[in-house]
């Protein structure tokens, strides 16, 4: 049986103050021996991870959705997401890992992907697939950062921060362009919906009602619902439930909690109601989903 999904922490020594590393990956292995985590099975991290694919093929599963690896591309993983990369033999790329604290301190908490929850609704989700020409700017920055890590000087940290700032701004710019293509005219409720999505991601297991989020946002439930519906095509309630179902799937597969305990952990006091809701949204019961997915991973 698949064990509980591991939550990996940053593989840095306590004395290291620069909470960012870049690992080169070739074939099915990370090329640095100081990377201690087993990535052969689904796992998650308490840090950001940027998967940069420069060659080869494979498949990347992120929260039960499979994406083909189409180099050159960059896949952005938020802390807490469950994922697994199935790499081909000819795979090449890089792995950027850095803490939330490092990012918030050095880059003023600016979102790597603007309006992140909305990006998950794009066809390719949190993934940038590019042409070789489009990737050139990112590739040159990665090479410059690698060289600076090898050089090491009194200014190394600040130089790398400067390169990363350009890298992240270009990343944001590309995702913003994808969102603009989906919504050519800036939506008047964009900021409200972004704030709502961020609240849902933080409080979904305590707050289930639209009115609870509306109160925190200083809006009426009707106004919030209209804003969310007009921008996403879904109601605020549907987005709350989607987030709850995602977490339920994670717990069903990657924990030893019973169906009843999963319901309780998500603040559903009536497990039978939770089961009906899960079946209505997924077409299967919690037990059927757990058994099917565990068989899949074990194979």
Describe the structure.
By secondary structure, the protein is of the alpha+beta class. It has 2 domains: 7-182, Regulatory protein AraC (Jelly Rolls), CATH 2.60.120; 190-298, Arc Repressor Mutant, subunit A (Orthogonal Bundle), CATH 1.10.10.60. Helices cover 48% and strands 17% of the residues. It has 11 helices and 11 strands. Strands 3-2-10-5-8-11 form a 6-stranded antiparallel β-sheet. Strands 7-6-9 form a 3-stranded antiparallel β-sheet, with no helix packed on it. A hairpin with a 2-residue loop joins strand 6 (58-62) and strand 7. Helix 5 crosses helix 7, helix 5 (190-203) runs parallel beside helix 8 and helix 9 packs across helix 10 (271-282). The longest helix is centred in the middle third of the chain and has 27 residues, at 156-182. The radius of gyration is 20 Å and the shape is globular. The mean pLDDT is 84.
Number of domains: 2
| Approximate helicity band | 40-55%
Mean pLDDT: 84
**% residues in beta strands:** 15-25%
Summarize the structure.
The protein is of the alpha+beta class and 299 residues long. The protein has helices at residues 100-106, 116-119, 132-151, 156-182, 190-203, 210-217, 221-232, 236-254, 259-265, 271-282, 286-298, and strands at residues 7-8, 20-26, 29-30, 44-45, 48-55, 58-62, 65-68, 73-77, 83-87, 92-98, 127-129.
State the main characteristics:
299 residues, alpha+beta, Jelly Rolls, Arc Repressor Mutant, subunit A, 6-stranded antiparallel sheet, 3-stranded antiparallel sheet, 11 helices, globular
Topology:
Blueprint: E1 7-8, E2 20-26, E3 29-30, E4 44-45, E5 48-55, E6 58-62, E7 65-68, E8 73-77, E9 83-87, E10 92-98, H1 100-106, H2 116-119, E11 127-129, H3 132-151, H4 156-182, H5 190-203, H6 210-217, H7 221-232, H8 236-254, H9 259-265, H10 271-282, H11 286-298
Parallel strand pairs: 1-4
Antiparallel strand pairs: 2-3, 2-10, 5-8, 5-10, 6-7, 6-9, 8-11
Helix pairs in contact: 3-4, 5-7, 5-8, 6-7, 8-11, 9-10
């Amino acid at each position: 049986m698949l064990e509980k999904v591991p939550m990996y922490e940053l593989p840095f020594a306590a004395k290291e103050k620069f909470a960012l590393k870049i690992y080169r990956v070739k074939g099915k292995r990370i090329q640095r021996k100081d990377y201690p985590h087993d990535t052969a099975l689904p796992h998650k991290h308490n840090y950001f991870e940027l998967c940069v694919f420069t060659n080869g093929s494979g498949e990347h599963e992120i929260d039960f959705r499979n994406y083909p690896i189409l180099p050159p591309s960059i896949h952005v993983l938020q802390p807490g997401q469950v994922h697994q990369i199935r790499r081909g033999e000819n795979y090449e790329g890089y792995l950027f890992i850095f803490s939330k604290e490092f990012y918030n301190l050095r880059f003023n908490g600016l979102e790597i992907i603007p309006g992140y929850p909305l990006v998950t609704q794009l066809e390719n989700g949190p993934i940038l697939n590019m042409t070789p020409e489009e990737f050139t700017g990112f590739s040159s920055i990665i090479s410059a950062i690698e060289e600076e890590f090898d050089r090491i000087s009194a200014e190394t940290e600040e130089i790398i921060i400067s390169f990363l700032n350009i890298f992240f701004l270009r990343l944001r710019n590309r995702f913003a362009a994808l969102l603009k293509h989906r919504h050519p005219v800036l939506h008047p409720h964009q900021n409200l919906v972004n704030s709502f999505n961020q609240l849902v991601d933080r409080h979904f297991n305590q707050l289930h009602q639209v009115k609870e989020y509306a109160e925190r946002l200083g809006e009426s439930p009707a106004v919030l619902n209209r804003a969310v519906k007009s921008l996403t095509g879904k109601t605020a309630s549907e987005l709350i439930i989607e987030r709850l179902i995602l977490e339920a799937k994670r717990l069903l597969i990657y924990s030893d909690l019973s169906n009843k305990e999963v319901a309780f952990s998500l603040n559903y006091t009536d497990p039978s109601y939770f089961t009906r809701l899960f079946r209505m949204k997924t077409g299967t019961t919690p037990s059927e989903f757990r058994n099917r997915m565990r068989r899949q991973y074990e194979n």
